[in-house]
Amino acid sequence: MNRVTVFISTLMSAVSNCRLYAINHESVNELIEKAFIILAEMIHTSGKVKMMLIDSDLVVNDQPQREMSIQEKNLVKLLRKRGISHITFVRGTSRPELKQLVAYLAASKQDVNSLPHITVGVVDVCLSEFKPGKSQDAAKSLSHFTAEQIQQARMEYDRLSPFKRLRITGFEEIVMHFVLSLKKEFDILKILEPRKSYVGYDYTHASNVSVLTILQAQTLGIAEHLQRDIGLAALFHDVGKLVIPPELLQKQNTAEARNQIIMELHPLYGAQYLAQIDGLTPLASIAAFEHHLKYDGQGYPKLRLNGLKQHLCSQMIAIADSFDNLRKTGPSTKVSDVKAALITMKTSDPGLFNPFLVDNFIRSIHLSLSQ
Asked: How many helices (H) and strands (E) does the chain have?
């Protein structure tokens, strides 16, 4: 039995005993002490312990619990009942704080509040388990999921500013929802949101690029913990546009030399901004800088380093970015539009994409169309 399972089992036993007796009962204190020792070891190893509930899945430090014990299932039920989406323990978590959390969880009606080193959060996002295309109810459920996700993304993006520190917690949750939703075998084209605007930092485009990049990572067999980092990098690939003048972003044609030069600086701005964010994967600043480089070394920003190749993550994001830009505005599941976009990607510029990756992407989309 791994440490996560032992910790959760001990914590839930403490909650159960607290309900039977009282928070200061000897048996409750013994269980809290045991849980605290295990928790302290996990925090020492990982820096934090984050338990996140995504529908019926329990995710601990970005790793879904595959075979849940009875107590882990009981924790999922408890969190769902209390409307809790995640609990995060960080360095400095004390015995009294853990004891207070047990008391909160044991109480049937009391709100579960955050403590100095224990954050309790609620995110109103729910996935529905169904096979796409089987019924009208399924389609409605997926539409509801997408709307919830995009709304959450919009709220997080609205907080973005080149003059403020980026808060990555909300974005991490968005990406984990994307990772797990794709694992439920949804039709990828029904998850994507129709593009409503091509102006500025478009949160629907950023979300679509994240989903499409995670899809590629999954089809390539990339480890799940790296899928999260790749998805985050994709979400922020265009963040440099935050410092581009709005009037320039609104122009349909930026071919004028001066405007083009300014536009081509957004990868550099994005990389500089993201490189300063503590706790953010380095892939984010790399991909922000490289997503307009071509596989053959052309593109922008112009580099003086000969032989520099795009990072694999940047290559996947460039493919996802191009596909989403080529799709028509409006409904995104029209097969003719999708196929036209794929043909353009395959034939327009032989130096633009990694040939293996673009072929894998096209094959993945065709498989989705055939579901």
From this structure: 16, 5
* Reported pTM: 0.61
Q: Which amino acid belongs to residue 247?
A: E
CATH of domain 136-369: 1.10.3210.10
Instruction: Please give the chain's pLDDT, 371 residues, in tens.
Output: 689 999 999 999 999 999 999 999 999 999 999 999 999 999 999 899 988 876 567 888 877 777 789 999 999 889 878 878 789 999 999 999 999 999 999 987 667 778 999 988 764 333 333 233 333 343 343 344 445 555 655 665 566 555 566 667 667 777 877 777 776 655 666 666 655 544 445 677 888 888 899 989 988 888 878 888 999 999 888 888 877 766 666 555 555 656 667 777 788 888 888 888 878 889 999 999 988 888 887 888 877 655 667 889 999 999 999 988 887 544 444 566 777 788 888 877 888 888 888 888 888 887 776 65
Q: Assess contact for 322 and 345: CB atoms under 8 A.
A: yes
CA–CA separation, 230 and 293 (whole Å): 17
- Sign (positive/negative) of CA torsion 252, 256, 262, 263? positive
Q: Report the greatest alpha carbon distance in the chain.
A: 76
Classify residue 299 by its DSSP letter: B
Domain boundaries, the chain: 3-121, 136-369
Contact 118, 156 (CB under 8 A): no
Q: Long-range contacts for 195-202 (Cβ within 8 Å, ≥24 apart)?
A: 195/324, 195/327, 195/329, 195/332, 196/329, 198/325, 199/249, 199/250, 200/241, 200/244, 200/246, 200/249, 200/250, 201/157, 201/160, 201/238, 201/239, 201/241, 201/242, 202/238
